[in-house]
Amino acid sequence: MSSSTLTTDLSGRHVLIPGGTGGVGEGAVRAYLAAGADVVVPTRSQERAEEFQAVLGDAATDHLHLVVHDYSTFAGAEALAATMEDRLGSVDDVVAPIGGWWAGKRLWEIEESDWLSAFTGPATTHMAVLRAALPRMKGDGAYALVVGASAFTPIPGSGLVSMEQAALLMMQQVLAVELGGDKRVFAFQLGPVRTRFTDGGGDPDWVSAAQVGAVAVAASAATEVPGQAVRMLNRPEADEALALFGARR
Question: 122 in a domain, yes or no?
Fold first, then answer.
């Protein structure tokens, strides 16, 4: 993990990480906990919460708040953000590694169920969380949309993922215009990521989940850096992202 995470103090900050139990999300959860922030991670079930706590091991300090909650609808996300605000006092930062992979059909072969699960579902969840959390955040917070390279690289048989990820890139651009600098929204553009789910550890040049987490923490801490798209398609680009936020490797 980057040393920037170990030297950054985010004590008193309250961070929401929907999708935090996933491979990329784990890196963000660990990084914010190491920086002293309170981290809220919604899960689908108590069993999933207990499994993730075991994965974190000693990193699962009392600053970790695992809550069983469905945030995939507007009403569900609103209830989650309101509960977080009531219990902790604020929603300061959000990292949203929401969604997963889908493959197997060309666009003209998809069924309505594919459309709903691979495009409408993830896009609605992102919109629901953004709508609930962003108005509650102060100007010095950071909202990070986590986007895969499929957003700008067409992959045959996975077009629905590419379309949904491209929509997230445009979401960040629209927000930048609409916010006019009042709040900071980032799009972390990732290539392949080494996570606990990567077979064989992955290519050494791939970005690690820990590096993604380090960049997210650095973005939260660098309150003077405006929201923007941040490319991290490989390890050198992740190092450049840390430098952008004034963090050490």
Answer: yes
Q: What is the CATH number of the domain that holds 145?
A: 3.40.50.720
**Centroid of chain to Cα 74:** 18
Taking the C-alpha atoms of residue 97 and residue 99, their distance in angstroms, rounded to an integer, is 7
In contact, 226 and 179? CB cutoff 8 Å: no
Residue 234 lies in a domain: yes
Which tokens is 175 given?
A: 């927000």
Please tell me the pTM assigned to this model.
0.95
How many whole angstroms separate alpha carbon 140 and alpha carbon 199? 38
Residue 24 lies in a domain: yes
Residues 37-91 pLDDT 10s: 999 999 999 999 999 999 999 999 999 999 999 999 999 999 999 999 999 999 9
Domain-embedded: residue 249: no
Give a three-class secondary structure readout of 81-98: HHHHHHHHCCCCEEEECC
Q: Number of folded domains in the chain?
A: 1
In whole angstroms, give the CA distance from residue 16 to residue 81: 8
| Domain extent at residue 137 | 3-244
